[in-house]
């Protein structure tokens, strides 16, 4: 059972202005839904980003909330690597100052840049350690209190010499004098309490049945899933249906004709974007569980799917088997009690509870592989499924890539 729909704070917005004090965008800020919800210090940054994105882009009309301007959203190193199912024209990816250069973050920024996303660097300090981010940056945010007038002017000039098209955003401006100093120093964009304080955005908080949502997510990740079957699955989950329709009908996707059906929304958004959004919806509801555990469930689902994709009759069951093997940890209940509430194929049920059959062997292999217990894997039995060490390792690498694209 779920609670009734209620009203609450979804997130906050703070406007950003240009040199002529014209609106240039809004930064969207995490806010706990109610007083009993976790604070930002208690909630990891990955989940905070997911919650802001989910609430902003599917629970509200983002075009209306941001008045036609782009939404600045904070991203951690982890969330940079995820598939972002939103139109580049509507969002600015704000790279948090805690993100350090690495091969993976640099590759993620390059990919996002090539896909047309605007990238901003938050609380930037020009040092050798984070200079590699600049080639992909369109906006650099500087905290005004950290600079005196001379240093600010020199830093802005240095950034503009590096890239004349780079825009410098001065934040934490608290007086007209500070705004004038930043403007005179050559800053292009401005944000702070002097201009406007963050404003709470209220909306409907729609509950979700976690187990039902996980079941839908498992079904959506079946291979060879068609548009009509996907539409049928989504239609059975009112929460997911409403969010997808809102997303498809919003200003995020420019189109000549309005969306008039769920099938139209599915066709408009596409398979990968819907899978990504479904993952975001489900994981955002597991806010009392470690992010690593949530990601492990998705990863194991893809791993088992890859291991079964060539097995007749089992390819459709691999993702569900892997995903549902984490249900006891996600729900703090015995696994047999949980799956008793879900209509599962008998082969999946046997694999989960007793590790019987080919699916049970695949799941046991995935668990042992995750624990680096190669010697304990039953390689002779796997050979009967035409799986060897190379195939298992390749399936795991592929699962990691799929997880990043879906979450």
Percent helix range: 40-55%
Strand order in the sheet with the most strands: 1-2-3-4-5-6-7-8
- Mean pLDDT across all amino acids: 82
Overall shape: it is elongated
Q: Characterize the main sheet.
A: 8 strands, mixed, barrel
Q: Flag low-confidence runs.
A: 38-43
For CATH, the homologous superfamily of the largest domain is named as EAL domain
Rg is: 23 Å
Cα-to-Cα separation, first versus last residue: 26 Å
Helix-strand topology string: EEHHEHEHEEHEHEEHHHHHHHHHHHHH
The secondary-structure class comes to alpha/beta
Oligomer: single chain
CATH architectural designation of the largest domain:
Alpha-Beta Barrel
- DSSP helical segment count: 19
- In the CATH hierarchy, what is the class of the largest domain? Alpha Beta
**Count of individual domains:** 3
Give the number of DSSP strands. Answer: 9
User: What would the CATH topology of the largest domain be?
Assistant: TIM Barrel
Report strand %.
Answer: 5-15%
Overview of the molecule:
With 407 residues, the chain is an alpha/beta fold. It folds into three domains: 6-203, EAL domain (TIM Barrel), CATH 3.20.20; 208-286, no CATH class; 289-407, no CATH class. 47% of the residues lie in helices and 13% in strands. It contains 19 helices and nine strands. The chain has helices at 45-58, 62-65, 77-80, 103-114, 149-162, 176-184, 210-220, 227-235, 238-249, 262-269, 271-285, 291-308, 318-324, 327-331, 335-339, 346-354, 357-370, 379-383, 389-406; strands at 6-18, 23-29, 71-75, 91-95, 118-121, 139-143, 167-171, 189-190, 199-205. An eight-stranded mixed β-barrel has the order 1-2-3-4-5-6-7-8, surrounded by four helices. Strand 4, helix 4 (103-114) and strand 5 (118-121) form a beta-alpha-beta unit. Helix 12 runs antiparallel to helix 13 (318-324) and helix 12 (291-308) crosses helix 17. The longest helix has 18 residues, at 291-308. The chain is elongated and about 75 Å long. It starts with 5 loop residues before the first strand and ends with a helix. Residues 38-43 have low confidence and may be disordered.
